[in-house]
Amino acid sequence: MKTTEIRIIVLEYQNISELPENDQFLLAEARKITSMAYAPYSGFHVGAAVLLGNGTVVTGNNQENSAYPSGLCAERVALFYANANYPDSEVKTIAISAAKDGVLVKEPVKPCGGCRQVLAEVEVRFETPIRIILDGQNSIIVLNGVESLLPLSFSKKDL
Ligand code: THU
Predict the structure, then answer these.
(1) Tens digits of per-residue pLDDT, 79-92?
(2) Residue 103 and residue 72: Cα distance in Å, rounded?
(3) Active-site residues: which are they?
(4) Can you name the CATH fold of 11-158?
(5) Whose CA is nearest to atom 10 of ligand 1?
(6) What is the domain partition of the chain in residue ranges?
């Protein structure tokens, strides 16, 4: 038996003003779109802003449904819109913010497993690591690649 350790690097910032300028802009876009989420059932409003290789920024927010599983997370709304409209442009960075009762969450928002899998697909599709910015009051964390969120992931390489 052999034990292997998988490490992830987490960059932690105290405030949005500490982020590189491009990231500040992207996170501000994610925060902005959060308030327009359709989340009457959970009251949990999430916003995602995606920076593409061609410089375009695409945003999305969670869209809930009375038939709960028919809703979709902010990350997937934004990523699917990006891939539908710019199928030749890689995703460089995604910024994610979330608010409960209109107030930014305390700890950095954590994408659900389904969104992690979709992020992994996009990364493999364009062969470009996706930087991930997770927003919170106490800290903002930045991850350099989906591997940090979803190690040992399943992808087309396994098919
Ligand atoms: N949600 C997102 O949009 N993204 C996440 O990363 C976590 C959860 C949404 C789904 C649902 O509309 C609400 O937040 C509560 O789970």
Answers:
(1) 999 999 999 999 99
(2) 21
(3) 75
(4) Cytidine Deaminase; domain 2 (3.40.140)
(5) 73
(6) 11-158
